[in-house]
Amino acid sequence: MAENDNLENYWMPFTANAGFKSNPRMIERAEGMYYYDANGRKILDSCAGLYTHAAGHCHPAIVNAVEAQLRSLDYAMAFQFGHSGAFELAARIAELTPGNLDKVFFTNSGSEAVETSLKIALNYHAAGGESQRVRFVGREKGYHGVNFGGLSVGGIARNKNGFAAGLPHVHHMRNAYSSDNFFSEGQPETGYEFADDLEQIVRTYGADTIAACIVEPIAGSAGVFVPPKGYLQRLRKICDTHGILLIFDEVICGFGRTGEAFGAHAFDVIPDIITMAKALTNGTIPMGAVALNTTIYDQIVAGKAENTVELFHGYTYSGHPVACAAGLAALNVYRDEGLFERSKALSSKLSALVFGLRDLNIVRDIRSYGMLAGIDLEPDAATGDRGYDLMRHCFEEGLVLRTSGDSFVLAPALIASNDQLEEMIAIIRKSLVRYMT
Length: 437
Ligand SMILES: Cc1ncc(COP(=O)(O)O)c(C=O)c1O
Prior knowledge:
By secondary structure, the chain is α/β, with parallel strands linked by helices. Helix content is 36%, strand content 15%. The protein has helices spanning 17-22, 48-51, 60-72, 84-96, 110-127, 148-153, 157-160, 196-205, 231-242, 263-266, 294-301, 321-336, 339-355, 386-396, 418-432; strands at 29-31, 34-36, 42-45, 103-107, 135-139, 170-173, 210-215, 245-249, 273-276, 288-292, 363-369, 372-377, 399-400, 402-404, 407-410. The strands form three sheets. The protein has a seven-stranded mixed β-sheet, with helices on both faces. A four-stranded mixed β-sheet has the order 1-2-3-13. The radius of gyration is 22 Å and the shape is globular. Pyridoxal-5'-phosphate is lined by residues 109-111, 114, 143-145, 216, 220-221, 249, 251-252, 277.
């Protein structure tokens, strides 16, 4: 960091600002699996940016596509006008989504994708003459971004505290997790019946008041909670029985993280709506999207005159040309480099390495699926927050690690080598043994 850098004005997101500013962790450039600081120190990235960079940092094909796009069309009015990139990217996404989730609405982030999905769910029911379906069901530990809709259906208490009530009419299922499932590699064998919480909410409030149920196939941000076998199938069945839309928030799971294009494929359950962001553009340019089935789309647009706006919703930057160029280039890279297949092949290596930490008595639980792993540590009696110290120590040792509370997550880019995965675990082990007495 240059001596005269001014750190005062930038209010950093989800960051302990005071702690950062007294001991900054500044990153200067990135390439592939590594960040570099101003002194050229190499720092291994264990979270693919923020679950974003499936193909690693500064991929030349994506950088070139963005550069070229900026020279030809930097923006086209998003409302009532179009450009070819947005249509092309929507078609490419529709090729990847399961079932008939063939209609795509663009946003600028995962949070906006979630808000959009909730609004579409309400609009769909209203268009079908069921405007009384206003309730949403989320799940404890769910993370659906930080805007009021996503915050409301989300289930992380720390994110909600201090922000008043949020959306009315929101209910939460329990997280599908118990100590019976500790140290499950892949999908836990037991726990599918947690899905019956949805049935319970239906019994209490009436199916005809519920618009949608939203879950992450694997709850990512709260620490990687993998759905028990049969759980998502059961949720699907309950939704079908009661006319409730099922939304999969695949902002983390999408684009190869599970070893398939989407978690929906990995767990063999087709939702009605999928939200996505992050790896959609390999994190290069902010972008999110909502894919929805043609039934929802048709119900909303049906009977509207040709000159009528069907959905009063959209963002200035929906389908931004530069984001579309990045998205198209990213999807080409994933296809040409076979990254979804690579993710599947690499996942057993990651899992074996992560479960190798089990011998440390400070490790309370380990969960993994695909190229995602979550590790809980025994809480620190004094601070209840070991993760912060762990993150700082790992950075000094040359690793960027995503921690939260007493947990940490591994979500390396899908291009990681075996050696790089081993190096991640070696640094983490070295940092963890400091806590052992
Ligand atoms: C599942 C999920 N949904 C939504 C979001 C919000 O995305 P963004 O930070 O792009 O608004 C995230 C971010 O991590 C996420 O993991």
